[in-house]
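Task 17 of the worksheet. Students: predict the tertiary structure of the chain below and write it out as C-alpha cells. Keep your answer in the requested format; marks are given for formatting as well as content.
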Amino acid sequence: MITKFDQTTQNILTELEKTQRQFWNIARVSAEFMYILIKEENIKNAVEIGTSNGYSGIWLGKALQETGGHLTTIEYWDKRLSVAKENFKQCGLEDVIIPRQGDACEILNSLPEDFKIDFAFVDANKREYIRYFEILDPHIRVGGYIACDNVLSHEEKCRPYIEAVNAHPNYENVVLELPAGLSLARKLK
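Model answer:
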C-alpha cells in the first residue's frame, strides 16, 4: 500500500474510498498500479475520461506531479466535477490537473491535431469505450498507453472496445484481473 502522500491527501483518499460505489470509483489497487506505471514510464501528458469525485484523478495527478507532467480530466456532470475540483485543490494538484466539463467525445474531437497523449485512462460510459479509442488513437504517442477500467465487470458493454484494440495492429493489450478488470493497451507503432 502506498502511503507516501501528505496527511491531507491520505485523508481525502480514505474518505473517497467510503463512497466508491456511489461515485463508481476505481479500486485502490488499480489506482496504485497506474500511479506506479506513470512514474516508472515518466509519463508527462495524461488524459482521464470520467473524473467523478476525483479519486482516480488524485492518484494520476500525484504521479504526474512527480514526473513534471499534467492531467486533463473530463467529466460530463458538473456537480461531480465541482466535488473533484475541491478535492484536487485540497491535495495541492491545481497546477497539475486541468478539469474539463462536458461530453468527452466532443472535447476529445476538439483537441488540436498535434496534441499528443502519453497515457489515457478511461472510466466513463462503457458503451462509448470504442468511440473514445477511435478518437484517442491518433493522439496516443508510440509507446503510450490506454487504460480502461471495468472491462470484466461490464464485459458485454466493453467487448467492442476489447475486440477492436486486440485486433488493431498498432497495439498490444492485456486485461489485468484487478478489481473490475483493467485493460492496458500499449501503442507499438
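Marker's comment: The beta strands are 45-49, 70-75, 97-101, 117-122, 140-149, 171-176, 182-187. The mean pLDDT is 94.
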